[in-house]
Amino acid sequence: MIITTISELRNYLKAQRAKNKTVGLVPTMGFLHEGHLSLIRCANAENDVVVVSDFVNPTQFGPNEDYETYPRDIERDAKLAVAAGGDVVFYPSVTEMYPEGSATFVEVEGNITRVLCGASRPTHFKGVTTVVNMLFNIVKPDKAYFGQKDAQQAAVLMKMVRDTHQNIELVVCPIVREEDGLAMSSRNTYLNDEERKQATILNQALAEGEKAFLAGETAVEKLVSIIADKIKEMPLAEIDYVDIYDFPSLTEIKKIERQALAAVAVKFGKTRLIDNRILREE
């Protein structure tokens, strides 16, 4: 079932809650792939009703980014979402979410939004937190589901929920990968054959960094060098960042003494891909 208006969705959920049903939310920008479907299946296993939002949010795209060309296919998405256990696909228009005159934003400040993707996309997380806060207010879910591939996003949203005292449990699910290790992403469709082949280096490089860490290397500078050097083996790889931070605070560290996030962003042609590993003692 596709619902396009906030009022209709609220009425639907009001009726479900009258039956004491729990609600799970899976926020997406559509063009669903197995990564999204894994979140929907997880939400279905833990809730009575699952809402999948399908909204390409303009405020999280910067100038000259791919908002206009971002892949969209609502009919395909709806079929996949329902097959995976979604009950409702919320597919609002931009004007439904941002009525004329909208001028209110939710922003998490500090290092957590300035590093990694925040460094090269300074307005991105302001758009993310604003739209997710909207969805939380509209759906009022018991649980909301996000993928670890967007680990910084998950950390930012956890802080937003904590700081604003929202009674929502955030569930972060593992990265889903293609058979050759590339993290699933809607943007993978932009890659040509050679770019797609070389992009597998991201997972390989992170695996080498993790291997070195588990073998006893804890110096961040050394681990970053190991990961970056591996990525540079591919001639088409243009590194945006290779960094390691404490997780989930994303504070700077020189040595890993507890859980940390190793994260990369690399362009292949015009396509920017991200990937990461949580580094912790086994």
The helix content, as a percent range, equals 25-40%
Number of strands: 9
The CATH topology annotation of the largest domain reads as: Rossmann fold
Mean pLDDT: 94
The CATH first-level class of the largest domain comes to: Alpha Beta
Content-based structural category? alpha/beta
The fraction of residues assigned to DSSP E strands is 15-25%
Uncertain residue ranges = none
- What is the molecular shape? globular
Order of helices and strands: EHEHEHEHHHHEHEHHHEEE
Biggest pleated sheet: 6 strands, parallel
Plain-language structure description:
It is a single chain. The chain has eleven helices and nine strands. It is an alpha/beta fold and 282 residues long. It has helices at residues 6-17, 34-46, 74-84, 94-97, 111-114, 117-120, 124-139, 151-163, 193-198, 201-214, 220-231; strands spanning 2-3, 23-28, 49-54, 88-90, 143-147, 169-173, 237-246, 260-268, 271-279. It folds into two domains: 2-173, HUPs (Rossmann fold, 3-Layer(aba) Sandwich); 186-274, 2-Layer Sandwich (Pantoate--beta-alanine Ligase, Chain: A,domain 2), CATH 3.30.1300.10. The strands form two sheets. Strands 1-4-3-2-5-6 form a six-stranded parallel beta sheet, sandwiched between helices. A three-stranded antiparallel beta sheet has the order 7-8-9.
Quick structural gist:
By secondary structure, the protein is of the alpha/beta class. It is built from eleven helices and nine strands.
List the helices and strands and how they pair.
Layout: E1 2-3, H1 6-17, E2 23-28, H2 34-46, E3 49-54, H3 74-84, E4 88-90, H4 94-97, H5 111-114, H6 117-120, H7 124-139, E5 143-147, H8 151-163, E6 169-173, H9 193-198, H10 201-214, H11 220-231, E7 237-246, E8 260-268, E9 271-279
Parallel strand pairs: 1-4, 2-3, 2-5, 3-4, 5-6
Antiparallel strand pairs: 7-8, 8-9
Helix pairs in contact: 7-8, 10-11
